[in-house]
Amino acid sequence: MIKSVNWIKSVHKGGTGSNLLKSIAAIILMLVVAFFAKQYFNGFDIEINQASAATENNAAAPPAPPAPPVVGHVVINADLAIGREYIGKVEPIQTVFLKPRISGQIESAHFKEGSIVKEGDLLFTLDSAQHQATVTLRKADLAKAEANLGKAVKYNDRLKAADKRSVSASDLDIAASEVLQNRAAVEQAKAALKLALIDLDYTKIKAPITGKIGRAETTKGNYVTPGGTLATIIQTDPIRVSYAIPDRDYMDQIEAFSSKDPVYNISLSLSDGTSYVSGGERDFEDNAIDTMTGTITLRRRFENKNGALIPGSMVRVSAKPVKSHVSPILPQEALMSDARGDFVYVIGGGDIADRRDVELGAEIGAAREVISGLEAGEHVVLSGLHNVRPGSPVRPSYPSSGASSASPADLARTSGYDLPAVISGEPGEGKN
Fold it and tell me: How far is 245 from 276, CA to CA, in rounded Å?
């Protein structure tokens, strides 16, 4: 470059030709300047184009919207072997209507009405004079028959011992027949005496069972005949409580009913609201469903030493299955359904909501049993479902009650059932 300038200067000193050289030098200088200017402006255009392209890209892809807020719910396990209440009726195991077996006049009654009588206690006495005389007569008939039999036996023995030539075969046959007839007469007299003694015993009417006797239907001096009721005895200890359950509840426990083991844990509430201390024991179930009501009657046996269970009274029976049935439950508002079936949105790691197909079981009020697809402690979207997209983030919030959007007591109030929580999680725990 310096050499070119010096050469231009030397040419300039040379006169006329120097003008031409000046022009050539000026052109070369302009070309050099143009070259460097082009390089400079090309780089500037690239930066402008890149900035313009970035601006266009930013305009085509707006910033992602914030995650939608939702209300979360933590799945809990609950014992679905729910206790239910039924109306029960107190029934005596045995009821006896005292009736005379013979006719006669009542001489006396030997009990206090409304008292507890024991088996074998004397309750009524009938006039026994006629029956006592009949017994005496039958005893005399028996003695006469026995005497005739003895006479016939002796006569038959003499004929047998006599010389065969002096006794005919016909006489021997007649003597043997007389023995047999008199023996039959003795047996007949014995039977007649036994019947007379039975009738005499029937003049004393005794308690066939232990229980509470009611009022005397007939009093002293009245003439009674077989068929009339003298009084009623009801067994009060032990005693039964019968209650009817729907056929659906019976079918739920059909396997337990087919065994001899207890099916329900029972507690009773009496008419005044007090609880009965004994849970009783399983007695038996009816053998058919009542077609009018669609129920089957169960009976349970209770001790009743203090007489608190009064026959004919009504009680409240609380029955909870002995065998538990623990399963996850879910509020029905968290459930969605489409052509593929039922599903929920599970809140996983990073608060990402994903679809989860579930298999549902029984309805329990406002809740639903989950047979498969969810476990206790998992988080699902309870409300705000319309803003959720599969695989998208959400902003969950949880009710202040903690693990569940409703406590077991709340679930009981809304569903009508007692649903004790078995397992529950806390918000932020148990996420996938």
Answer: 20
C-beta of residue 312 within 8 angstroms of C-beta of residue 267 = no
Chain centroid offset of residue 92 CA:
26
pTM of the model: 0.61
Tell me the C-alpha distance between 145 and 179, whole Å: 11
Both structure tokens of 250: 């019976």
pLDDT digits (tens, 9 = 90+) for 180-200: 999 999 999 999 999 999 999
**For the chain, what is the largest distance between any 2 Cα atoms, rounded to a whole number of angstroms?**
215
pLDDT tens-digit map of 138-188: 999 999 999 999 999 998 888 888 877 777 888 888 888 999 999 999 999
What DSSP element (H or E) covers 59? helix 17-60
- Given a contact cutoff of 8 angstroms between Cβ atoms, the answer to whether 248 and 228 are in contact is no
| Chain-centre distance for alpha carbon 19 | 121
Percent of the residues in the chain that have a pLDDT greater than 90, as a whole number: 48
Q: Is residue 232 within 8 Å of residue 95, measured between CB atoms?
A: yes
CA torsion through residues 177, 178, 181, 183, sign: negative
Give percent helix, percent strand, percent coil of the chain, each to the nearest 5. Answer: 35, 30, 35
Angle at 25 between CA 23 and CA 30, to 5 degrees: 95
pLDDT at 212 exceeding the cut of 70: yes
Distance CA 179, CA 156 (A): 7
Rg (CA), the chain: 55
Residue 398 · residue 358 · CB < 8 Å: no
Q: Is pLDDT larger for residue 173 or for residue 60?
A: 173
In angstroms, the CA 170 to CA 163 distance is: 14
Q: Please indicate whether residue 392 or residue 11 has the higher confidence score (pLDDT).
A: 392
- In the chain, where are the structural domains located? 2-60, 69-80+326-423
CATH number listed for the domain at residues 69-80+326-423 = 2.40.420.20
The rounded distance, in Å, linking the Cα atoms of 164 and 412 is 106
Contact 273, 335 (CB under 8 A): no
Question: Residues, the chain, total?
Answer: 432
